[in-house]
Amino acid sequence: MVVYNYTAESMRAHLLKMYEMSTRAGGLKSGVRLNEAGAEVAEYLYQQLRQSDLSNVRKQYFPIKRWWPDKYSLQIVERNGNRDLLAFPLWCSAQSDAVELELVDIGYGTSGEMKGLDLKGKAALLSMKRIFHFLPTFERTGALEKLIKKGAAAVIVINVDLDVPSGMLAVSHKAAMAAINEGELPYYPIPGFCIGNKPGKELQELMKTGMVKIKLELQTSVTDTETCNIIGELPGSGEIDETVLVGGHYDTWFGGALDNLAAQGGMIELARHFASLPVDQRPRKMIFASIFGHEYGNQGHIALAKELEPQKYKITCFYDLDGAGTPGWEFDHEGRIIETGFNDICGIVASSNALARPAYQALYDHNVFSIRFFDNAHMADLDGALSELGIPTLLLISKYIYYHTPLDMPDRMPPEMVYTSMEVNRQVISEILGSPPGYYISTNTNPCQDEEQNKMHQPDIALEDLPVNPKPWTDGPPKDLLFEVVPPSPKILSPVIVWRSHFISEGIAHIPDISWSFGNLLEKLLPKMRKGPATGTIYLIPGRKTIKMTVKDRYGRESTIERIIQVVK
Which of the residues in the chain have pLDDT under 70? Predict the structure, then answer.
């Protein structure tokens, strides 16, 4: 039996074919959604998995409510005629006939920035950055919810870091999944749009000289339809009565090269590789799944979880493929794009240290720069209902700065980096596939486990027992430290959000390795706020403040970087 070995070129071919399908509609109409591109990519994945020697390859259909922007526009109202702005609707926001609204700048939507503003019947201009490149800052500030309470008539989100709109839901993933579980459509009660940085800055400058009005229209439709997950099975030898689930989402915002078509192309090639192995090298059954709907509320995850629930006590792991290797680009403290000289940070999200161990080893073996995003975390927005089954989950996520924008293109993904990413995935999956019976199930620390799953428990391994990098990424203490602060000039008694954007350490950094100093009393009263890659504080007194981020490596060596901010009344 000949073992199938994929190549960078074979994975690239899948990416380019699916990307062409995704972008055929052009511009902001691109994307694998509940549209022709969605159906075409689903069929492609189905046919490719059928050709991979899997068994029981099928389309798992499920009902879904389709929200769709049928007609939309956003304009600046000017004396000599209105001027169009390149804008994209916030998904699942309310429709509106053409209407002119006064615009009010609310900054990043913190309580201090919004205090005293009259927003009733007006449009709010909301600045947004992405924490770790993927989490919108307004999810931390609660800005969208505050706007509803203040009676705002619309919201315009500025994608601060890039001069293009970004795709996003108008509600959180948590709220979206709650609505979907009740058979409802996630819904935000006012219309919303996203615009790029340049028009956002222009609007802010115009507002300094007087009243600014915008004219918007958003006509939407909601229909009942269906879509599908693509599922294929690979029988094992029967030696171990467990299943390894490998999958990821295939829906996209816009072209979606990194997020998530490259990983889907990689999954096809991984399926072919494992199907070509002698059956005695597969002691467990495997399931490969292309899942629809992650970007729109994890509908496919919910459908797949319902099918797999009877098997949940025998699922070794859900290995989530999301992101697939790009160069590292970051924003420096002046907002300029810089190259890091490494790959985009690979974030490890594992439901146990035991499950993280093979990931550490593979990442070190293939020299892929990584950090631990969240320790033993349940990530509802990433793994959705599958994680909520209480099963072990592992995700090696890569989201570069062009995530969820039309700039997420294959040209930014060197084939050799995508190949290396899949080699890491192959090595980790192989380790999980051949692990001792029940090991990852019993060491699982997923907080969603039920009573029966908790009965299987044995102690997880300690952080200190994880592999050491044999080829350190730096010979000295951590270097190239960068972090973000939002808002840049906060008000007293109002939240300040900080997060690490970049650093290089000798090996994979953990949550406790990153600490903060804000120079205020609150950090002494709440010491937990000083730890972790993203946190925040509140200042009681105005003035110049120094925020410091310190990173420590496993040998105790430390480096610190600081930024000065001005806190105002």
Answer: 374-383, 528-529
